[in-house]
Amino acid sequence: MFALIGHQQKLATKAWRPSRTSLFRCFASASPQQDDKTTQSSFAGMKEAEKLVDHSARGIGQVIFLNSPVSGAVILGGLAVSNPYLASLAALGTITATGSAKAAGLDDQALKDGLLTYNGCLIGCAAAVFGPSSLLACTSSTIIGAAATPFVAATLKETMTIPQWTYSFNLVALTSLLRTRPLLPTDQAVITDVPFASSVGFGDLIMSPFTGISQIFVVDSALSGFIIFYGIGMVSTIRQAILFVLGIVAKGHALMGSTLGTLCGAFMGADVSELAMGLWGYNSALTSMAIGVFFVHSTPTLALSAGGAAATAAVFGAMKSVFGAYGAPALTLPFCTAASACYYLGKQIPALQYAKAPHSPEKNSA
Asked: Can you give the pTM of this predicted structure?
C-alpha cells in the first residue's frame, strides 16, 4: 500500500513540474509576438522623434527661407557659438511650435517644410534677449508664445494673399514686449552705453554686415553671422551645380541686403554703435533674401533686392523711433512691411517673375 502511495506521489510530482521542452515551447510561442510589438513600438517612437527633429531643423532654416534640416542645424550651431542660452531657447521654441502644430492637426505639408515652426524659433530668440531674467519665466514665456504661433500663422494664411513672412512672430512677441517695455531707458543703460560706443573700431564696422545677418536671430556676433552665412548655401545637395550656384546667389542677397541696410543707416546719421551691432542690417538682409527666394533670379530681381534693402532700412529708422518711444524693439516688422510692398510690385512690373516653387529653388531658374 505504501509503495502504491509513493508511486502515485511520484506521478503527481512528475505531472506538475513543467519540462524544459514545454517551457521552451511556451516562451517560443509567446515571445516573438511580444518582441514584434515592442520593436514596432520602438521603431514608431524613433520615427516620430526623427520627424520632430527634421521638421524643427527645417523650421530654424525657414527663418531665412531655407527648407533644409542641414542648414537649420548649422544655424543653430552658429547661435550656440555666441549664445548657448539663446540657442537653447530657439530650439525649445521651434520644437514647441512643431508639437503644437502636430497636435492640432494643422497642414501636414506646411509642417514638414518648417513653415509652421520658424516663428517659434524667433520667439525663443527674442525671449532670451528681451524676456524675463528668470530662467523659469523665460522658458515658460517661450513655450507659451511658440505654441501660439502656428495658430496665428494658420489664421493669417486664410486672410493674406501674400507670404506670411514673420508676421506671426511679431504679433505674438510684441503683444508681450509692448507691455513689459524692455528698452525703457535706465540710469544703468546710460552709463554702460558710453564705453561701448567708444570701443567701436573700424574692424567692427567692416564686419557689421555679418553681424547684421546674426541679428536676424537677435545675436550680436560677426562670427555667428559668418556661420549662418555659410549655412545659407546648404539649400540642398551641393553636388548639383545649379543648386550650388543658387546657394551663392542666396548668399549674395543676404550679404548685399545687410550691407546696404548698414550703409543707409550711416547715411541717415545712425549711431555708430548701432551700425556695428548690425541693427540696421538684419531687416534689409531678410528683405533681399525674400526677394531672391520669391522671384525668379534676373537683373530686375537683383535691382528690386537692392531697392528693397534700402527701403527696409528707411522703414526700420521710422519704426525704431516709434517703438522705442514705447520701450519695445521693432523686431522684424520693417522687413514684413517692405517685403510685402516689394511682393506686390511683382504684379505691376512685367519683368519680375514670381517663383513657382519658392521653397525649391532648383525649379525656379528662368
From this structure: 0.83
